[in-house]
């Protein structure tokens, strides 16, 4: 029994284009909402959670629909094709709304311009603003008009923190950014039409992505034998991270997350990402032969004794016993908890890096993705040796360690330490992600792969729909620095729920003599 790496890579192009999209979405949408529309962290968290709220019912729905769908192209391929094309169209329309808002706030968008700074000061000097650390202030109490006009993105000062250490803080991100965002908020309040259009297009874009995410992910177990799914999922995630890392590389090259580029137009960036998505789709459509590959997997599964003939084919059903159901519930609870922690960081880190650490978020996230890519294949092999559960537990410990270290990071912390922390988080997430989805679909039959994939995404999206908003509330009302303690707590809780999972590990029940299934052609 041997994994067909070539086929798995080709199937992975669907996940490649999905991750390319979500990477640019996470990097740009939060900044657009706060910098260009002036929304608070809480409000932007609500908008950022829209995709996850939609996913709560759309991913299981389309997973089940694709299970029952019949066409000459297979059960999943038609959803991938149509959804991707629609998503690219709406992504480009989103940039039109973004540019319209930039035109509305044009007078505030000239970074490091004294005249713009004077305008911001005049409008906001007597208003109560809030620093990223949650401290209220008024510009008139801190600066004269002339002093404020001289602040730039490089303006820094040294102060003593709560631990008695001298740290360097960026005055621009602390005092100018909240004032500039308040100006954008006032423009949005006066002319909310652009925000309404932006949100309407964003909703259509998210619906388009939701229609094919579950079918795309369900295709891997459709064409892969059960004991090989951790290794296959490692390759699928490798493809996904490759899509993410390409987009992050583009973002880093263009310095998208830098404060000085907070008001750049995203038309070119979205066009590049849309082109990447369409290229990946063409490769997928030309090379993946879903019906033939799925039928071949079903035959092999019966011959190897992994499934009975009546449960291997599409249309077959299987009911979980009480022990399996209990394991599934605890596994889904664990997924909820670690996504609560991890997604809080990924959805808010761009803002956090700008306002607290004064570091480039895209470079840091790029390192995390590189570390994950390096780890995926070794993690899949480790899981095949020691089991999926033990591998996941080790990943949880690593992720907790990375986030716990992040609790103590400041703008004066060395960049290499933050890089190491995110590299560890990348390896940890790869360790968890490679094995959790195969554990869920290990418990189902061929007819229910889309349904159980929907279970997995319902759990993950439930967390992702709530955690940006909840973490945003903490960042608004407690302090911006509450992000990593928040994430650490939820990841730690996932360790304990995972202890009660007893099913879902790979079981190689095939006869040794049937290892001749080498289909790497």
Structure description:
By secondary structure, this protein is an all-alpha fold. The chain has two domains: 5-105 and 193-505, Up-down Bundle (Growth Hormone, Chain: A); 107-190, no CATH class. The chain contains 20 helices and four strands. The protein has helices spanning 5-11, 13-36, 41-48, 50-68, 77-104, 114-124, 139-142, 145-149, 171-190, 193-222, 229-253, 267-287, 290-303, 309-312, 322-357, 361-386, 388-406, 415-441, 449-477, 483-498, and strands at 129-130, 136-137, 156-160, 166-170. The strands form two sheets. A two-stranded antiparallel sheet has the order 1-2. A hairpin with a 5-residue loop joins strand 3 and strand 4. Helix 2 packs parallel to helix 5 (77-104), helix 2 crosses helix 11 (229-253) and helix 17 (388-406) packs antiparallel against helix 18. The longest helix is centred in the middle third of the chain and has 36 residues, at 322-357. It is globular. It starts with a helix and ends in a 23-residue tail after the last helix. The model is unreliable at 508-521 (pLDDT under 50).
């Amino acid at each position: 029994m041997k994994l067909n790496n070539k086929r798995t890579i080709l199937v992975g192009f669907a996940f490649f284009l999905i991750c390319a999209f979500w990477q640019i979405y996470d990097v740009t949408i939060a900044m657009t909402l706060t910098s260009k529309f002036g929304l608070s962290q809480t409000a932007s968290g609500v908008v950022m959670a829209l995709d996850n709220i939609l996913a709560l019912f759309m991913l299981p729905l389309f997973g089940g629909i694709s299970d029952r769908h019949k066409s000459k192209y297979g059960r999943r391929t038609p959803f991938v094709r149509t959804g991707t094309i629609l998503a690219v169209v709406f992504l480009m329309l989103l940039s039109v709304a973004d540019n319209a808002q930039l035109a509305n706030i044009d007078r505030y968008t000239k970074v490091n311009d004294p005249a713009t700074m004077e305008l911001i000061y005049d409008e906001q000097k007597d208003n109560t603003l809030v620093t990223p650390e949650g401290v209220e202030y008024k510009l008139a109490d801190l600066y004269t008009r002339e002093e404020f006009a001289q602040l730039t993105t490089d303006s820094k000062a040294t102060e003593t923190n709560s631990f008695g250490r001298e740290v360097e803080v960026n005055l621009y991100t602390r005092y100018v950014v909240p004032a500039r965002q308040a100006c954008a908020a006032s423009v949005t309040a006066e002319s909310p039409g652009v925000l309404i259009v932006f949100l309407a297009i964003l909703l259509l874009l998210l619906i388009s992505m939701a229609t094919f995410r579950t079918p795309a992910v369900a295709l891997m177990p459709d064409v892969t034998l059960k004991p090989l799914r951790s290794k296959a999922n490692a390759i699928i995630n490798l493809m996904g991270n490759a899509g993410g890392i390409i987009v992050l590389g583009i973002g880093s090259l263009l310095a998208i997350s830098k404060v000085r580029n907070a008001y750049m137009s995203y038309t070119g960036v979205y066009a590049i990402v849309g082109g990447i998505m369409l290229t990946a789709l063409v490769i997928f459509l030309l090379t993946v032969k879903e019906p033939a590959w799925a039928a071949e997997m079903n035959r092999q599964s019966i011959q190897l004794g992994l499934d009975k003939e009546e449960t291997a084919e599409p249309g077959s059903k299987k009911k979980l016993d009480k022990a399996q159901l209990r394991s599934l519930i605890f596994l889904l609870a664990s997924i909820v908890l670690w996504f609560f922690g991890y997604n809080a960081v990924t959805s808010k880190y761009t803002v956090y890096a700008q306002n607290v650490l004064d570091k480039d978020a895209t470079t840091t996230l790029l390192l995390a993705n590189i570390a994950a890519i390096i780890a995926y294949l070794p993690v899949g092999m480790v899981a095949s040796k020691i089991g999926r559960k033990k591998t996941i537990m080790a990943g949880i410990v690593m992720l907790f360690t990375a986030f716990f270290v992040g609790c103590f990071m400041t703008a004066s912390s060395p960049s290499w330490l933050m890089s190491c922390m995110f590299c560890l988080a990348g390896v940890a997430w790869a360790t968890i992600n490679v094995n959790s989805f195969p554990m869920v679909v290990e418990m189902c039959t061929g007819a229910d792969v889309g349904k159980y994939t929907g279970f997995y995404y319902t759990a993950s999206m439930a967390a992702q729909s709530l955690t940006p908003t909840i973490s945003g509330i903490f960042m608004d009302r407690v302090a911006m620095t509450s992000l990593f303690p928040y994430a650490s707590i939820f990841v730690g809780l996932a360790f304990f729920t995972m202890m009660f999972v007893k099913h879902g590990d790979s079981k190689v029940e095939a006869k040794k003599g049937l290892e001749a299934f080498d289909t790497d052609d």
